[in-house]
Write a structure and sequence with these properties.
Layout lengths: L1 H4 L3 E6 L4 E6 L2 E6 L2 E7 L1 H9 L6 E4 L2 E2 L2 E2 L2 H15 L2 E2 L2 E2 L7 E6 L5 H13 L4 E5 L10 H6 L1 H5 L5 E6 L3 H19 L3 H4 L2
Parallel strand pairs: 10-11, 10-12
Antiparallel strand pairs: 1-2, 1-12, 3-4, 3-5, 6-7, 8-9
């Protein structure tokens, strides 16, 4: 499905217990009279969506597409859910305090300054005072992304609450989605794809 191909995969790294958790960047809403209520978040959305007998009563949203926030309020719900589930809950109980007010954001896709500011504002809205970033332009000094994430506390000399990685497990899906969108653009512009793509 074209919509699902553009969805990111989000990984949350918990510095307290050194665990990594992953969810698909999806939020499913169910129509309830004149409103939409959240029916699923993350991995469960894809399963629900494929099994729905009445998809017309649901709305599947990709709030972060190709690494860029495209629906700010829904992206907030998605990240808030993941942080609550994987960072702010220990043994079934909510933590009263964060481990630190710092968070690391890892972005694999190129982002404009406006896109970066949107991420920063969102994480500050979720309670973080300091947002550190690793972007596609960051020199990791020979480290893998995962190594750089785990070494961040050592590198900065400060504690971090968690790291959030906006990535894609299957890049073919990105390529497929982008190619289909490009063909749509060619059609809209009245340009034959064969004139450009040799």
């Amino acid at each position: 499905m074209e919509l699902l191909d553009s969805a990111v995969d989000i990984k949350v790294y918990n510095y307290s217990d050194r665990t990594v958790h992953s969810e698909k960047g999806l939020v499913l809403f169910k129509k309830d009279k004149d409103n939409f209520i959240v029916a699923g978040i993350g991995e469960e959305c894809e399963r629900y969506w494929m099994d729905l007998s009445d998809p017309e009563n649901y709305l599947l949203v990709v709030p972060i597409s190709l690494g860029v926030i495209t629906d700010y309020p829904v992206a907030e719900k998605l990240l808030k859910y993941m942080l609550s589930k994987y960072i702010f809950t220990v043994n079934g109980k909510k933590k009263l305090l964060k481990r630190a007010s710092r968070v690391l954001l890892v972005l694999h896709e190129p982002c404009s300054p406006i896109d970066l500011r949107a991420y920063e504002d969102l994480l500050m809205l979720l309670g973080y005072k300091n947002v550190h970033m690793i972007t596609s332009k960051t020199d990791l000094g020979g480290l893998t992304v995962e190594e750089a994430i785990w070494k961040m506390e050592e590198t900065q000399g400060k504690k971090f609450d968690c790291a959030i990685e906006i990535t894609k497990n299957n890049h073919f899906e990105y390529a497929k989605y982008s190619y289909e969108k490009l063909l749509d653009d060619f059609k809209r512009w009245g340009v034959e794809a064969s004139e450009i793509i040799k």
